Structures are given as C-alpha cells and as structure tokens.
Amino acid sequence: MRLLTLFAATIALFGSQTPPASAGTVQCGATITHSVALTADLVCADVGLVVAGNGVVVDLGGHELKAKTALLVKDVRRTVVRNGAITGDNVGGVKLENTLRTTFSNATIAAGIAGTGARNTLLHKVTQGNWYTQTLFSEGSSVTVSESSVQGYSFRCYTSSPCRIDNSQTQISDYLNCDEDSSLTFRGGFLNSTWMGCTNLTIRGARVYSYQVGAVNLTITDSTLDGFIVYATKLVVLRNRFDVDITGMMIVRLDNGVIRGNTFSNMASAGLTVNLDTPLAGRVVVEHNTFTANGFRPSTWDKGGNVIDAGAHFYLPSGGDLVVRDNHSADNHAYGYWAQPGTVVDGGGNTSVNNPLGCLGIAC
Questions:
Q1: HSE on the CB side for 185, CA within 13 Å?
Q2: CA dihedral in degrees (191, 197, 201, 206; nearest 10)?
C-alpha cells in the first residue's frame, strides 16, 4: 500500500512520461494531442496534421510533412514545430488559429502562413516561402522572425497584429505591408521588397532595397539603403547611408519630420529630393547630412519640370516650414543644393565644395 501511495505521489509531482508518437502511428489528417516524432516523410492530399493539445512538440526528425494544408494549429498554447520540412499551399499551407506561443525552429516551410489570433508566434532559424507564397497574420496576431530567411509574393500584418523581423534575409516580390492598427519593425539583416506600406514602419540597422515606401509613421535609422520613393506623414531618417540608385531618396508626400546625419552618395539623380505639390502641414528639418558625387546620370524631373541633379533638391510650395541647415555638399554634378527661392528656410551653416553651379535658394 505504501508503494502504491509513493508511486501515485511521484506521478502527481512529475507527471506521466508519455513517449512521443512515431510516424508509423500518425496518419494523414490526424488530430495530435501529444508530442509526435516523425521517422519518415508524411505526404497527404488535403490535411497533414492538426495540433489540438497544449504543449505539443512536432519533431519532424529531418523529414517532410506535405499536404495542401500541411499543418493546422488551433485553440492551443506552446506548440513547437522543429527539425524538418513543411510543404503546403502557397496561401494557408500552414494555419494558426487562436494560438499562443507557437514556435517554428530549424525548419523549412515551403508554404504560406495564415495566422489568425496567432499571439507570440516565433520563427527562429527558419527558411520560409517561395516567390509565390502569401503570408498573412491578422486578428490580434503577433509574430517575431529571427535569424531566418523569408521569401514570398506578400507578407502582411493586419488588424492589430504587430510583426517584427530581426537579423533575417527578407525578400518579398510585391507587397510587404500592414494596416492602420498594426506595425512592422525590421532590425538588422537584409530587406528587399518592391513596395512597403504600413501605419507604423520602423527599419533599424538593415540593408534595404525597395522601390516605394509608405507609412503614416516611418522611422529609418542606422541602415544602408538604395534610394526609393517615400510617402509619409511623419518621417524620421537618422544616421543612414544611401548609395547607388537612380532616384535617390525622393519624398513625394510629407507633413513633418527630421532628416539628420545621413550620407547620400553616388545617386544617379539627387541624393535627397523633396518633391511636393502640397504645402507642408508641419515642420521638416534637414540637417547635418553629407551629399557627395550625386546627379551624374540624371533621369528624373521635379513637379515643376526641373531636372534633378544636385546633391539635395527641394521643390515645394512656398509657405511651409522646411529648414535646411548645417549640411555639407561636395563633388555633385551641378548644384550642391537646389531649392526654389523663397520656399525653404535657410538655417545657415550649409557648405558646398566643388559643385560646378554652387547653390540655388540656399546660401553656401
């Protein structure tokens, strides 16, 4: 009797040790409530596995889980998927519904991920997607991607879903965006996307290639970028390096912001262009930047038809509050600074060296 009592107490303290199921006991479409370890590939038609228990570990064991919906994780917490390959549909090949702390690690996911209410999702050391996959996190999801490679047609975070990508290689052929209640944050790594748009978009310490970037609140710091077209309400651009591009950084929508401590060099057109057809609603300060060797292959014009080939080029209606001060411009194709006279506030301290046409609209 004492032995039975001791055994019962041990079970209560440590829990029963149920070994993970093997691939031989897992069938296509199976609902998993305990951990599973695959010992062979599992190839299915419609549904691979459904995780319906808390704390489940799906150890792929170096094998492939393949189906239209390869994995469905629903109404559970603390799921871990690791060590293998998942192949599924380009839209929703992996589905996370009302989940908490789902982790993918050391895995290749050749599928789009659809996360609805997928809170605290982590992709760590994962290769995800292909040029056709569409990934969407929505309805209060939150996701962190770290030390991974993400590729796809689109990557979106909607309806109160903050997304963060850290120290990863991200290549999106079309849309990388979020809606008005969500945010995108990139820290480190490589980022390449044709179009980025978000209410709150933050880029820190990354290498970035893009064509257009739009945000209500756009912050770019300590990064290396080519040029791109910017649409923003509030813009903060600090300590970046912009180099080797056709347009440079061209701002075509802006209310207020600061552009400080950046280096713009080797742009085909101007290093920095502010090209607006509506007056500024607030204050914009451009200060302590360096513009060198820009404008030698001009191929763009401002809204007034003026060629853009200076170190910095400013075209905007008069009456706004755009302050230009304490910048340095050297070795550009034509002007060091070009501004319509009377449209910017000359804050002084701007210097020009070896710019053939000197400065227009700004003393130097």
A1: 12
A2: 10
pTM over 0.85: yes
CB-facing half-sphere around the CA of 290: CA atoms within 13 A:
12
Do 191 and 207 touch, CB atoms closer than 8 A? yes
- What are the tens digits of pLDDT across the range 274-324? 999 999 999 999 999 999 999 999 889 999 999 999 999 999 998 889 999
Half-sphere exposure of 79 (CA within 13 A, CB side): 30
**Could you report how far apart the first and last alpha carbons of the chain are, in Å?**
96
Distance CA 51, CA 187 (A): 31
d(CA 168, CA 107): 14
Place of tokens 């107490």: 9
Distance CA 336, CA 314 (A): 12
What one-character DSSP code corresponds to residue 293?
Answer: S
Count Cβ atoms below 10 Å from residue 8 Cβ, excluding itself: 10
Q: If DSSP codes are grouped into helix, strand and coil, which group holds residue 179?
A: coil
| Residue 246 confidence (pLDDT) | 75
In this structure, the dihedral spanned by the alpha carbons of residues 254, 227, 236 and 224, taken in order and rounded to 10 degrees, is 170
Q: Exposure of 302 by Cβ count < 10 A (0-12 exposed, 13-18 middle, 19+ buried)?
A: buried
